[in-house]
Amino acid sequence: MHVLVIEDEPKVAQALMQGLESENYQVSLSVTGEEGYFLATTQAFDLIILDLMLPGRDGLDILTALRQQECQTPVLVLTAKDAIEDRVIGLDTGADDYLVKPFAFPELLARIRALTRRGRPEQALRLKIADLEMDCVTRKVARKGQDIELTAKEFQLLEYLLRHQGHVVSREMLGRDVWEAVDRATPLDNVIDVHIARLRQKVDAPFKKKLLKTIRGMGFVLKEGEV
Ligand code: CA
């Protein structure tokens, strides 16, 4: 599996290189947009990890050009925290998924696996379990075709659960990846539980089939049927 990383920040680039190589990915690194674009159009890659904020030719420009050239390689975009517009533009431009910096490495690996596993890249932007659907671009959630209003945090929590559906998600994972808490403190567990309860109230309570389950002593799982 050959991954092209286009990232100008030395620390992030280094961490990506080391992390991916330790997972047995073959990595090529470009620290400028120009070079990245050149590599992307002259060599075959299984995945491109593209930082949007690059000196000179920026990420969106590269992405637009690649898609115009009919380059079908999955692209995972890295954006700065809270640059929501960038994200939306990136997805409209043809990115397959995005990750907000700073990100947890296991989360990056999960996204990479999802992107490289499936043939149809657009799937990652529409998540689904049973009759519950999430559109990550328009940020809409619906169940049985009924719109469900979620707060930003509830949305983030549900997206995480959907991306890990069928697998138990611990409070520790939620604290790290959704709340981005470095030191997990007991009060955060309560915050997580409150959000889970509210989410359950909205996505499960009005419906017969329950999807969000609590696994005592372990965490939560979004799953159809028995656990
Ligand atoms: Ca950058």
Description:
- The chain has 227 residues and is α/β, with parallel strands linked by helices.
- It contains 8 helices and 11 strands.
- Helix 2 runs parallel beside helix 3, helix 3 (59-68) runs parallel beside helix 4 and helix 6 crosses helix 8.
- The chain is globular and about 55 Å long.
List cofactors, ions and other ligands.
calcium ion
Strand order of the largest sheet: 2-1-3-4-5
Q: Architecture of the largest domain, according to CATH?
A: 3-Layer(aba) Sandwich
CATH class category name of the largest domain = Alpha Beta
Radius of gyration (Å): 18 Å
In percent, how helical is the residue content? 40-55%
Name of the CATH superfamily of the largest domain:
Response regulator
Number of helix segments?
A: 8
Order of helices and strands: EHEHEHEHEHEEEEHHHEE
Query: How big a fraction of the residues is strand?
Result: 15-25%
Task: Please summarize what this structure is.
The chain is an alpha/beta fold and 227 residues long.
Descriptive labels:
single chain, 227 residues, alpha/beta, Rossmann fold, Arc Repressor Mutant, subunit A, five-stranded parallel beta sheet, four-stranded antiparallel beta sheet, 8 helices, binds calcium ion
Task: Summarize the helices and strands and which ones pair or pack.
Elements: E1 2-6, H1 10-22, E2 26-30, H2 33-42, E3 47-51, H3 59-68, E4 75-79, H4 84-93, E5 97-100, H5 105-117, E6 126-129, E7 132-135, E8 140-143, E9 146-148, H6 152-163, H7 171-177, H8 186-203, E10 212-215, E11 219-222
Parallel strand pairs: 1-2, 1-3, 3-4, 4-5
Antiparallel strand pairs: 6-7, 7-8, 8-9, 10-11
Helix pairs in contact: 2-3, 3-4, 6-8
The chain binds calcium ion (CA).
